[in-house]
């Protein structure tokens, strides 16, 4: 008969529809996942809220081999306060993001800002610091003293004539000065305002920079390690003000 279906057609109709099963399983999976998320997520969030987060490093900080200070929160590595004696009256304080150093000289003398015990003795290092002249007489020399110890020290100075100097004091057998680089003209030195000093010392090699320009590259093995200071030659009856606006030193390996 025309309306009678064949046996093969009946077999095809009796087979289950697998796509329906897949759809049901997928739907169940979504429902289960949603329920688990709704139950577990709040617990995870509560755990995260109890876990302390690492706070950012402060602007003035120390890592394993780098010391940085921008004076936004006082000073860790440089002495502050008043120093008054027969040679000078000096005040050192943090003002507007800088370490301000004012010296009223009673006699001609070498004076400085000493580093604190938080800044270790430096042997092999790369040091950068920016010093800004706020007020100073024409006869004024200032800069960085390094590898300072009982045996002596080096100092790297500039003056208001646009010159730089590298000298050392040796204390044995008696105090005596040695000029490694006598006053030398350089066009990169600013006669007023800011100058960035950089000293790179590794073993007996010393390189000196001002405002990222290399001024001297020499070798000297007299002194190997010591303290670091900011220093100036001041002259009788003069007043000088210098701001240190940044400081960074990186310890190096020879």
Shape: globular
CATH top-level class of the largest domain: Mainly Beta
Largest sheet: number of strands, sense, barrel closure: 10 strands, antiparallel
Looking at CATH, the homologous superfamily of the largest domain is Exo-inulinase, domain 1
Q: What amount of the residues lies in strands?
A: over 45%
The total of helices stands at: 2
What is the share of helical residues? 10-25%
Calculate the terminal CA-CA distance, rounded to whole Å: 104 Å
Q: What this model shows, in words?
A:
With 254 residues, this protein is of the alpha+beta class. It folds into 2 domains: 7-50; 61-251, Exo-inulinase, domain 1 (Jelly Rolls, Sandwich). It is 16% helix and 48% strand. The chain has 2 helices and 16 strands. The protein has helices spanning 7-14, 18-50, and strands at 61-62, 66-69, 81-84, 88-95, 98-105, 109-114, 125-135, 141-149, 152-159, 163-170, 176-185, 193-202, 205-210, 213-219, 227-234, 239-251. Strands 1, 2, 3, 4, 5, 7, 12, 13, 14 and 16 form a 10-stranded antiparallel beta sheet that branches. It is globular, with a radius of gyration of 35 Å. Mean pLDDT is 83; it is low at 1-16, 20-25 and 35-63.
